[in-house]
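Lab channel / #folding
Pinned by the channel admin:
"Please post every new chain as: sequence first, then the structure tokens as a reply. Keep commentary short and put observations after the output so the thread stays searchable."

First post following the new format, from NK:
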Amino acid sequence: MEYRLVKRIKLNFDSGVLLSIDFNLCRESNDLSKVTEEIINEIKDNIKNKGFPDYLWFRGIGNSLKYSSCKNIIDAIKEIYPHQKIGMYLNCELFQEEKLRNDFYKSDLVAINLNSIDSVDFSKINKCSNQVNSFDVLEGIKEFRKRFKGNLGIYTLFLRGINDNMKTIEQLKSFLLEIMPDHFSVSNYILDNFEPISEEFKKKIKEIFRYLPFKVIYMF
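Reply from TO:
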């Protein structure tokens, strides 16, 4: 069977084998519930033929609508495979809602996309689906960290001419030291005609994040 919506991958931190379910591939459907059954069937078939992954890895969850569909899939899979671990890659905007945070506590692995903590253009730089209050989002992440018992990662994308500056690095460092994630991943956004960040800036990133007391992964 060929799989349209699920794929086995490995990431750069110690997560083992992931069965990735990418909601970015569901853009052709305005009603995500239409693909829910297809995703569940692909997950079941993949597990049957290739065995259990270390995590089911849900990504492309950029807003509460997509998360609602994701939650339906997780609930259905958990009924069939109650011990299957769940991982999610989430846009930071979702953490402003306490109801959603309460759901995320049930996951085993959570990675949060956070490209900047500066209130100026926060929603744009972090690719939020709506205009959000940066304070509410950041406080939500802090609250989540206090109670979350699983593996927490922060994932930052640097965009040339947007957030490739010392202020962004220093602010992120302070925030990371406050929440103490299990790992922090840094990458370089080069899609949509963006030029790579400079080699000089890459060196500055590595210099400033060098002594962070948790694992730092450079993906450039």
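NK: The chain has two domains: 1-84, 95-219.
TO: also worth noting, The chain has a mean pLDDT of 92.
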